[in-house]
Please model this.
Amino acid sequence: MAAKTGKLLLAGVLLALGLRFLVPVVGLIGLVICAVAVYVLKDSAGEIKSGGFTIKRRIFTLVLLAAVFGTSFYYRQLYRAFKMPSASMVPSIQQNGRFMVDRKAYAARTPQRGDIIVFEFEQQGKMTLQCKRVVGLPTENIEIKEGRIYVNGVPTLIPELPAGISYVNAGEFGKQGQALAVPADAYYVLGDNPAVSVDSRYFGFLIKRVIYGKVLWTYSGIPLRKSMKLLLPHA
Model:
C-alpha cells in the first residue's frame, strides 16, 4: 500500500512538472516528463473504482494522455516559439536565435516602452512577422538625437535596452532634427541593431491591432531539429 501511494505521489509530481514545462515552452521536455508520469501512474493504479464502476487502466491512461495533450494544444495557442532570421535585434536576439512569444500579453494591457514585440508587416506584397523594440508610445513626440531617444524633448532611457546601443538617423521617419508625433493607438519601434534594422524610421508608426505578441525570453537552439519542427514554428 505504501509503495503504491509513493508511486502515485511520484506520478503526480512528474505530471505537475511536465505541465509546468508545457505551459511556457511546449517542448519535448514536458512531453517526456508527462509520458513518464502516465507510465508510473498506469503501472501503479491497476483498476480504479469510482461510483461503482470499474475503469480499466488502459482507458484511464488514454483519458490522462488526452488531457495532457489537450493542455499542450491549448497553450500552444497562447505561446509560440520563433527563430530570428536577421541581425536586426542583435545583441538582444542573435541572428538565428530562438525566442518565445506570448500572444495574449496585450489582451488586458498596452505595450510599454522597452517591450520587444512581434507584429504583422506587409513586405513585397506578402504578410510577414517582424520583431522590434517599442521606444515611442501613443501621443508622445519622438526624436532620434545624438544616438538617443528624446521623448517630448527629454532624453529618455529605454528599459531593458542593452548598453552601448546608439541610434542613428535614417529613413523618412528618422531624420536628423525631426520630431514625430506618435498617433493615438500607435507606436514607434526600432531594432536594437540600428545599422541593419528596417523599422519605424522607414515604415513609420505601428498601430496596435497588428501586434502579434510580446517576446518573453530567448533561448539556445535545440539539436533535435527534425523533432522540434512541429513544436517550434519558425518565422
Notes: The chain has two domains: 2-77, 82-228.
